[in-house]
Amino acid sequence: MTQDIGEKRVFGIREPVFHGGPDFHLMLHDFASREPVHPHWHTEYEILLFNDGAGTMQINADRFPFRAGTIVFVRSGAVHGMTPAKGTSYAFSAVCFGRELIDSAAGDAIQRKYITPEAEGTLLFPACIPREHPLWEALAAPLLEIRSAGKQGFAGRELLVKSDLLRIWYLLSTSPVPTGRPTAVPEEKFLLLRQILQELQARYAEDLTLGALASSFHMSEGQLCRFFKRGTGMSVISYLNDYRITVACRMLREGNEPVGRIAASVGFRNISYFNRVFRRLVRCTPAAYRKNPEGTGPADPSSLLQPEK
Fold first, then answer.
1. Residue 179 located in a structural domain
2. Same domain for 168 and 218?
3. What's 148-179 look like in SS3?
4. Is position 307 within any domain?
Protein backbone atom coordinates (compact mmCIF):
# COMPACT_ATOMS: atom_id res chain seq x y z
CA MET A 1 0.00 0.00 0.00
CA THR A 2 2.30 2.73 1.26
CA GLN A 3 5.74 2.54 -0.32
CA ASP A 4 8.57 4.18 1.58
CA ILE A 5 11.39 4.97 -0.82
CA GLY A 6 13.45 6.67 1.85
CA GLU A 7 16.82 8.02 0.86
CA LYS A 8 16.78 6.87 -2.77
CA ARG A 9 17.06 9.63 -5.36
CA VAL A 10 14.44 9.33 -8.05
CA PHE A 11 15.92 9.86 -11.48
CA GLY A 12 14.26 9.27 -14.78
CA ILE A 13 12.21 10.58 -17.61
CA ARG A 14 8.89 8.86 -17.95
CA GLU A 15 8.31 6.63 -14.97
CA PRO A 16 7.43 3.20 -16.40
CA VAL A 17 5.59 2.44 -13.18
CA PHE A 18 1.85 1.89 -12.83
CA HIS A 19 1.05 3.55 -9.54
CA GLY A 20 -1.36 1.28 -7.72
CA GLY A 21 -3.31 -1.63 -9.18
CA PRO A 22 -5.66 -2.00 -12.16
CA ASP A 23 -8.67 -2.20 -9.83
CA PHE A 24 -7.72 0.92 -7.87
CA HIS A 25 -5.27 3.19 -9.68
CA LEU A 26 -3.76 4.98 -6.69
CA MET A 27 -0.52 4.70 -4.74
CA LEU A 28 0.93 6.45 -1.71
CA HIS A 29 4.62 6.89 -1.14
CA ASP A 30 7.00 8.73 1.19
CA PHE A 31 10.31 10.25 0.19
CA ALA A 32 13.17 11.77 2.19
CA SER A 33 16.55 12.89 0.88
CA ARG A 34 19.19 15.60 0.66
CA GLU A 35 19.54 15.17 -3.11
CA PRO A 36 17.49 16.54 -6.01
CA VAL A 37 14.70 14.67 -7.71
CA HIS A 38 15.64 15.21 -11.34
CA PRO A 39 12.98 16.13 -13.90
CA HIS A 40 10.70 13.23 -14.83
CA TRP A 41 7.04 12.67 -15.71
CA HIS A 42 4.25 10.13 -15.51
CA THR A 43 0.69 9.83 -16.71
CA GLU A 44 -0.81 9.92 -13.22
CA TYR A 45 -1.65 13.03 -11.26
CA GLU A 46 0.44 13.56 -8.14
CA ILE A 47 -0.27 15.57 -5.00
CA LEU A 48 2.66 16.17 -2.64
CA LEU A 49 2.58 17.32 0.96
CA PHE A 50 6.01 18.44 2.17
CA ASN A 51 6.64 17.37 5.74
CA ASP A 52 10.11 18.85 6.19
CA GLY A 53 12.80 20.96 4.56
CA ALA A 54 12.81 23.65 1.90
CA GLY A 55 13.87 24.09 -1.69
CA THR A 56 12.63 24.74 -5.21
CA MET A 57 9.97 22.79 -7.10
CA GLN A 58 9.87 22.66 -10.91
CA ILE A 59 6.71 21.86 -12.87
CA ASN A 60 7.25 22.32 -16.59
CA ALA A 61 8.52 25.88 -17.01
CA ASP A 62 7.42 27.08 -13.59
CA ARG A 63 9.61 27.11 -10.50
CA PHE A 64 8.52 28.03 -7.00
CA PRO A 65 9.79 27.58 -3.44
CA PHE A 66 8.53 24.86 -1.13
CA ARG A 67 8.88 24.38 2.61
CA ALA A 68 7.32 22.21 5.30
CA GLY A 69 3.54 22.28 4.86
CA THR A 70 3.51 23.17 1.16
CA ILE A 71 1.01 21.19 -0.94
CA VAL A 72 1.90 20.71 -4.61
CA PHE A 73 -0.42 19.59 -7.42
CA VAL A 74 1.32 18.00 -10.45
CA ARG A 75 -0.73 17.60 -13.63
CA SER A 76 -0.71 14.39 -15.64
CA GLY A 77 2.25 14.43 -18.03
CA ALA A 78 3.96 17.45 -16.45
CA VAL A 79 7.76 17.36 -16.27
CA HIS A 80 8.57 17.91 -12.61
CA GLY A 81 11.46 17.73 -10.19
CA MET A 82 12.77 19.39 -7.05
CA THR A 83 15.99 20.71 -5.58
CA PRO A 84 16.53 21.16 -1.83
CA ALA A 85 18.04 24.28 -0.36
CA LYS A 86 21.82 23.94 -0.20
CA GLY A 87 22.98 21.64 2.55
CA THR A 88 19.49 20.69 3.71
CA SER A 89 17.26 17.63 3.58
CA TYR A 90 13.57 17.46 2.75
CA ALA A 91 10.70 14.98 2.94
CA PHE A 92 7.26 14.64 1.43
CA SER A 93 4.27 12.32 1.23
CA ALA A 94 2.68 11.79 -2.19
CA VAL A 95 -0.59 10.55 -3.62
CA CYS A 96 -0.40 9.32 -7.25
CA PHE A 97 -3.65 8.47 -9.02
CA GLY A 98 -5.08 7.89 -12.47
CA ARG A 99 -7.61 10.24 -14.01
CA GLU A 100 -10.24 7.51 -14.17
CA LEU A 101 -10.70 7.89 -10.41
CA ILE A 102 -12.14 11.38 -10.89
CA ASP A 103 -13.67 10.95 -14.37
CA SER A 104 -17.39 11.49 -14.83
CA ALA A 105 -19.78 10.18 -17.47
CA ALA A 106 -18.76 11.26 -20.95
CA GLY A 107 -20.45 14.51 -21.91
CA ASP A 108 -22.09 15.32 -18.60
CA ALA A 109 -21.77 18.73 -16.93
CA ILE A 110 -19.05 17.63 -14.53
CA GLN A 111 -16.90 16.22 -17.33
CA ARG A 112 -17.47 19.27 -19.55
CA LYS A 113 -16.81 21.87 -16.85
CA TYR A 114 -14.12 20.37 -14.62
CA ILE A 115 -12.44 17.28 -16.08
CA THR A 116 -11.95 17.76 -19.83
CA PRO A 117 -10.86 21.44 -19.53
CA GLU A 118 -8.15 20.48 -17.02
CA ALA A 119 -6.92 17.66 -19.28
CA GLU A 120 -6.82 20.08 -22.24
CA GLY A 121 -5.02 22.79 -20.27
CA THR A 122 -7.80 25.37 -20.42
CA LEU A 123 -8.55 24.95 -16.71
CA LEU A 124 -5.35 25.26 -14.68
CA PHE A 125 -5.23 24.47 -10.97
CA PRO A 126 -2.82 26.21 -8.60
CA ALA A 127 0.36 24.12 -8.45
CA CYS A 128 1.71 25.42 -5.13
CA ILE A 129 -0.42 25.85 -2.01
CA PRO A 130 1.65 27.12 0.95
CA ARG A 131 0.34 26.74 4.48
CA GLU A 132 -0.96 30.32 4.57
CA HIS A 133 -3.06 29.82 1.40
CA PRO A 134 -6.84 30.05 2.02
CA LEU A 135 -7.31 26.53 0.58
CA TRP A 136 -4.61 24.87 2.64
CA GLU A 137 -6.62 23.54 5.59
CA ALA A 138 -9.47 22.34 3.37
CA LEU A 139 -6.98 20.49 1.09
CA ALA A 140 -4.91 19.02 3.92
CA ALA A 141 -7.91 17.26 5.49
CA PRO A 142 -8.75 14.93 2.57
CA LEU A 143 -5.05 14.32 1.89
CA LEU A 144 -4.54 13.14 5.45
CA GLU A 145 -7.70 11.04 5.24
CA ILE A 146 -6.38 9.32 2.08
CA ARG A 147 -3.10 8.63 3.84
CA SER A 148 -4.91 7.17 6.86
CA ALA A 149 -6.98 4.93 4.57
CA GLY A 150 -3.80 3.69 2.90
CA LYS A 151 -2.22 2.75 6.20
CA GLN A 152 -5.30 0.70 7.07
CA GLY A 153 -5.53 -0.86 3.62
CA PHE A 154 -7.67 0.53 0.82
CA ALA A 155 -9.97 -2.51 0.68
CA GLY A 156 -13.40 -1.36 1.79
CA ARG A 157 -12.33 2.30 1.73
CA GLU A 158 -12.22 2.92 -2.01
CA LEU A 159 -15.34 5.09 -2.02
CA LEU A 160 -13.97 7.21 0.83
CA VAL A 161 -10.71 7.80 -1.05
CA LYS A 162 -12.54 8.57 -4.32
CA SER A 163 -14.71 11.12 -2.50
CA ASP A 164 -11.57 12.71 -1.03
CA LEU A 165 -10.02 13.00 -4.50
CA LEU A 166 -13.18 14.61 -5.86
CA ARG A 167 -13.22 17.03 -2.92
CA ILE A 168 -9.61 17.99 -3.67
CA TRP A 169 -10.53 18.46 -7.35
CA TYR A 170 -13.45 20.69 -6.36
CA LEU A 171 -11.32 22.82 -4.04
CA LEU A 172 -8.60 23.31 -6.67
CA SER A 173 -11.20 24.24 -9.27
CA THR A 174 -12.42 27.10 -7.03
CA SER A 175 -9.07 28.89 -7.46
CA PRO A 176 -8.16 28.45 -11.13
CA VAL A 177 -4.98 29.97 -12.53
CA PRO A 178 -5.45 32.33 -15.50
CA THR A 179 -4.46 30.69 -18.78
CA GLY A 180 -2.39 32.30 -21.48
CA ARG A 181 0.29 33.72 -19.20
CA PRO A 182 3.85 33.64 -20.62
CA THR A 183 6.30 31.06 -19.28
CA ALA A 184 10.01 30.40 -19.87
CA VAL A 185 9.11 27.37 -22.01
CA PRO A 186 5.54 27.20 -23.42
CA GLU A 187 3.51 24.21 -22.28
CA GLU A 188 3.30 22.71 -25.76
CA LYS A 189 7.09 22.53 -25.98
CA PHE A 190 7.25 20.11 -23.08
CA LEU A 191 6.29 17.34 -25.48
CA LEU A 192 9.61 18.06 -27.20
CA LEU A 193 11.43 18.10 -23.87
CA ARG A 194 10.00 14.69 -22.97
CA GLN A 195 11.14 13.37 -26.36
CA ILE A 196 14.68 14.65 -25.75
CA LEU A 197 14.74 13.05 -22.30
CA GLN A 198 13.49 9.79 -23.81
CA GLU A 199 16.29 9.90 -26.40
CA LEU A 200 18.91 10.42 -23.71
CA GLN A 201 17.66 7.43 -21.77
CA ALA A 202 17.52 5.23 -24.87
CA ARG A 203 21.05 6.17 -26.03
CA TYR A 204 22.93 6.65 -22.74
CA ALA A 205 25.35 3.80 -23.55
CA GLU A 206 26.44 5.36 -26.85
CA ASP A 207 29.25 7.82 -27.43
CA LEU A 208 26.56 10.46 -27.75
CA THR A 209 27.57 13.99 -28.73
CA LEU A 210 25.62 17.21 -28.42
CA GLY A 211 25.82 17.59 -32.19
CA ALA A 212 24.26 14.18 -32.84
CA LEU A 213 21.51 14.76 -30.29
CA ALA A 214 20.74 18.24 -31.62
CA SER A 215 20.61 16.89 -35.17
CA SER A 216 18.04 14.29 -34.11
CA PHE A 217 15.68 17.11 -33.18
CA HIS A 218 16.59 19.52 -36.00
CA MET A 219 18.16 22.00 -33.60
CA SER A 220 21.57 23.63 -33.31
CA GLU A 221 23.73 22.67 -30.32
CA GLY A 222 23.14 26.10 -28.82
CA GLN A 223 19.38 25.86 -29.23
CA LEU A 224 19.36 22.39 -27.66
CA CYS A 225 21.47 23.44 -24.68
CA ARG A 226 19.42 26.56 -23.96
CA PHE A 227 16.10 24.73 -24.34
CA PHE A 228 17.19 21.82 -22.15
CA LYS A 229 18.61 24.09 -19.45
CA ARG A 230 15.40 26.14 -19.35
CA GLY A 231 13.27 23.04 -19.10
CA THR A 232 15.24 20.99 -16.57
CA GLY A 233 17.62 23.36 -14.81
CA MET A 234 20.50 21.10 -15.82
CA SER A 235 22.90 20.89 -18.74
CA VAL A 236 22.48 18.01 -21.20
CA ILE A 237 25.83 16.51 -20.18
CA SER A 238 25.07 16.70 -16.45
CA TYR A 239 21.73 14.99 -16.96
CA LEU A 240 23.25 12.29 -19.17
CA ASN A 241 26.11 11.60 -16.77
CA ASP A 242 23.73 11.39 -13.82
CA TYR A 243 21.66 8.82 -15.65
CA ARG A 244 24.75 6.82 -16.62
CA ILE A 245 25.90 6.72 -12.99
CA THR A 246 22.42 5.63 -11.95
CA VAL A 247 22.65 2.63 -14.28
CA ALA A 248 26.24 1.92 -13.16
CA CYS A 249 25.10 1.83 -9.51
CA ARG A 250 22.47 -0.74 -10.34
CA MET A 251 25.04 -2.86 -12.20
CA LEU A 252 27.45 -2.64 -9.27
CA ARG A 253 24.74 -3.77 -6.86
CA GLU A 254 23.40 -6.60 -8.96
CA GLY A 255 26.41 -8.09 -10.75
CA ASN A 256 30.13 -8.83 -10.61
CA GLU A 257 31.38 -7.24 -13.80
CA PRO A 258 34.68 -5.34 -13.51
CA VAL A 259 34.31 -1.61 -12.92
CA GLY A 260 36.03 -0.80 -16.21
CA ARG A 261 33.57 -2.89 -18.18
CA ILE A 262 30.63 -1.27 -16.37
CA ALA A 263 32.00 2.19 -17.12
CA ALA A 264 32.25 1.37 -20.82
CA SER A 265 28.80 -0.21 -20.93
CA VAL A 266 27.12 2.92 -19.58
CA GLY A 267 28.84 5.25 -22.04
CA PHE A 268 32.09 6.33 -20.35
CA ARG A 269 35.09 5.79 -22.62
CA ASN A 270 37.60 6.97 -20.01
CA ILE A 271 37.75 5.08 -16.70
CA SER A 272 39.39 8.01 -14.89
CA TYR A 273 36.56 10.33 -15.93
CA PHE A 274 34.00 7.71 -14.85
CA ASN A 275 35.65 7.47 -11.42
CA ARG A 276 35.66 11.26 -11.01
CA VAL A 277 31.99 11.61 -11.94
CA PHE A 278 31.06 8.64 -9.74
CA ARG A 279 32.86 10.04 -6.70
CA ARG A 280 31.28 13.47 -7.21
CA LEU A 281 27.75 12.08 -7.39
CA VAL A 282 27.89 9.09 -5.02
CA ARG A 283 30.66 10.38 -2.70
CA CYS A 284 32.62 7.14 -2.72
CA THR A 285 34.52 4.99 -5.21
CA PRO A 286 32.72 2.38 -7.34
CA ALA A 287 34.55 -0.37 -5.40
CA ALA A 288 33.38 1.02 -2.06
CA TYR A 289 29.84 1.34 -3.35
CA ARG A 290 29.84 -2.28 -4.49
CA LYS A 291 30.91 -3.45 -1.04
CA ASN A 292 28.36 -1.35 0.83
CA PRO A 293 25.69 0.22 -1.43
CA GLU A 294 23.40 0.97 1.50
CA GLY A 295 26.12 2.76 3.43
CA THR A 296 26.87 5.48 0.93
CA GLY A 297 24.22 7.83 2.27
CA PRO A 298 21.66 9.98 0.55
CA ALA A 299 23.96 10.88 -2.35
CA ASP A 300 23.34 7.44 -3.85
CA PRO A 301 21.75 8.21 -7.22
CA SER A 302 20.31 4.72 -7.64
CA SER A 303 16.90 4.91 -9.24
CA LEU A 304 13.71 3.13 -8.41
CA LEU A 305 12.81 3.62 -12.06
CA GLN A 306 13.86 1.07 -14.66
CA PRO A 307 14.65 2.07 -18.26
CA GLU A 308 11.69 1.57 -20.54
CA LYS A 309 11.89 -1.41 -22.85
1. no
2. no
3. HHHHHCCCCCHHHHHHHHHHHHHHHHCCCECC
4. no
Distance CA 149, CA 2 (A): 10
The CATH number for 132's domain is 2.60.120.280
| Low-confidence stretches of the chain (pLDDT beneath 70) | 1-22, 179-188, 294-309
Predicted local confidence at residue 34, as pLDDT: 81
Phi, psi of 203, deg, nearest 5: -115, 20
Task: Tell whether 17 and 164 lie within a shared domain.
Answer: yes
Q: What is the pLDDT of residues 162-208, one digit of tens each?
A: 999 999 999 999 998 876 554 444 556 777 888 898 899 889 999 99
Interacting residues of 28 by C-beta distance below 8 A, sequence separation 6+: 1, 2, 3, 93, 94, 95, 96, 146, 147, 150
Q: Could you tell me if 31 and 134 lie in one domain?
A: yes
Q: 60 with 168, same domain?
A: yes
- Looking at the fold, whether 141 and 196 belong to one and the same domain comes out as no
pLDDT at 179: 61
* pTM given for the model: 0.70
Q: Which of 127, 142, 173 is the last residue of a domain?
A: 173
